[in-house]
Amino acid sequence: MHGSPMSSACLALAAVVLAVSVSGPIAALNPKGASAAKLLHFNNDLTNTESQVSPFHHNSSDPYSEAVLRGSVAETQGLGVTTHLLSPGFCWVAWWPSVVAPPQSYDQWFRGMFGPPTKIATVARIFEYVLGGGDIIGEFMSAAKAAGERPSVTFRITDFQTCDLAPASNYGGLSKFLYEKTNDSSAFQNPKGFNATCCWEHKCPCVCNDGTASLILSDPAVLDDRRSLMLEILDMSVSPVDICH
After folding, report:
1. What is the per-residue DSSP string for 152-173?
2. Helix axis angle, 66-74 to 136-146, nearest 10°
3. What is the predicted pLDDT for the residue at 175?
């Protein structure tokens, strides 16, 4: 798997999903399989738990906390959720205690490149929580198990919200890898042209709205970056129902 293209990695994970789901949600879509048990997979976007007001988060500008994360899981208890999935950010910056891409190293790089963060928004507040020692994936797994749900993680391979803001305003969301990689334009040629609403400095690979995400996945360095973070999450004892998207 380490030497195969990212598409192979996704197919491998997809095969796992199919293997564990064939008697559940897939079969449930078949009228002839009406007797098969139906499974409910709930996808927790994570950033919404910080940006939205809720019973466990009274002010959208408050710092992120373990109580907010656990509350977002606990509110689904008793609703029949089989698998609770969490998306740890855009997955270009590690929102977990990463060894591959330590949050402390990212913080030092960002401040050295752009100075102190100029905009402390949802993404930045969650990243500050991780930087301070918060273990989002570990805490999520604990909360899901306490709720009687199976914890799992979704990994965003080509989420280009990392490009939505100017670099200096995207602390915790800006991809260090992509920002440095844009110096090598060979990986990011886009025959459809640049979308100014998506691409910072007309450098970011413009795949937000035109469906050309596969353009960057043809570059070995990009594949290695995506693969290394995905495999690190898989090594964290997360349920094997992981989804590439």
Report:
1. EEEE-SS-GGGGSS-GGG-TTT
2. 30
3. 84
Q: What is the DSSP string of 191-245?
A: TT---TTT-GGGTS---TTTS-GGGGGGSHHHHHHHHHHHHHHHTTT--S--EE-
Q: Which residues contact 43 (CB under 8 A, 6 or more apart)?
A: 85, 87, 154
Residue 113, beta-bridge partner list: none
Provide φ and ψ at 130, rounded to 5°: -65, -45
> What pTM was computed for the model?
0.73
Helix-then-strand count for the chain, H and E? 9, 4
Check: CB of residue 63 under 8 Å from CB of residue 134.
no
Residue range 50-65, pLDDT digits in tens? 888 888 888 878 889 9
With tokens 């990009």, the residue in question is: 222
**φ and ψ of 237, to 5 deg:** 60, 30
Contacts with 74 (C-beta within 8 Å, 6 or more apart), sequence order: 56, 143, 146, 147
Q: Which neighbouring-strand residues pair with 155?
A: 244
User: Measured between alpha carbons, how far is residue 56 from residues 15, 68, 96, 182 in Å?
Assistant: 36, 6, 21, 40
DSSP, collapsed to helix, strand or coil, labels residue 70 as: helix
240 with 16: CB under 8 angstroms?
Answer: yes
